[in-house]
Structures are given as C-alpha cells and as structure tokens.
Amino acid sequence: MSMHTQTSASGFIASDPQLSQTAKGDSRFYARFGQEHYRREADGSFTQLETTYHNMVMFGRSAQRAHERFAKGDKFIAEGYTRTPEYERDGAMVAGEEEFIAKRIGHDTARTRYEVDRTPRRTAAERPTTERQAPGFEHAEPQQARSAPAMGM
Questions:
Q1: Which residues constitute the signal peptide according to the record (predicted)?
Q2: Cut 0.70: pTM above it
C-alpha cells in the first residue's frame, strides 16, 4: 500500500483565533496566519523577505480543539488542502481569497516548547455520563518538579 501524503502549511497564528458555527451548526475555526520567507544568498547567509498572510479554517470537533489550544503568535504545522471559495455577490459569483482548510494541526516542535500528556484516552463507554458531556480535552495542572534527596559524604 502506498504512503498517504497531503498538502501542509506552517507558520504562525497572526490573528486571534475565532470559533463560529456553519449554517449547518458545525464548529468552524478561523485564523489568519503568517509565513516568513527567506532567500539564501551566495555567501550562505539568508535575507528575510516579506511575510505573507493567509486564511486558515478548520471544521467540526477539530475546530473546537484548535480553538482551545491555539493563540495568536503560536507556531504551527497543519495538514489539509487549499481552496478558493466562491461567494454570490449582487447576483454574480465572485472568487474569494484562497484559504487553507486544515484537517490536522499541531504546534511546531522545532519552534515551540511544551509537555505531552501521554495518559491513555478512555473510550466513551469507559467514561461516566457526566464526563462524556464535558469537553474532550482538559489542560493538565502544572506539576511541581520533584528533586531527589541529597546524598552526603
């Protein structure tokens, strides 16, 4: 079986993320994101070029999770595809600005420090009814660093 690959985008969240609802009632995440561009010079140095800005959207439960976890300034890597939406304006179809539709998104590990919670997720059947109605992700409380007892000579 061949390897599954998709289009990706990386950059930084340039606007405050917004969570709204589609006409069908699904969650919709929206943020402007920036991409820094560089040119490699003959001497091996890099010259920073103009930063470009783009639209990113995400739908469903992934949109809710992204809204909980991302803030303006966060560095990310996302998988998805691009599209140019069309809108009806004054009875005519008009092409909108190209946008990136993210299916998956995560913080860029090369540019972000964070801790991973590896606690196994429980299935819906394993959770009490009240917990099933709660959001699917809770931020873990920061834990105090424990130091080993000192050994004397």
A1: none
A2: yes
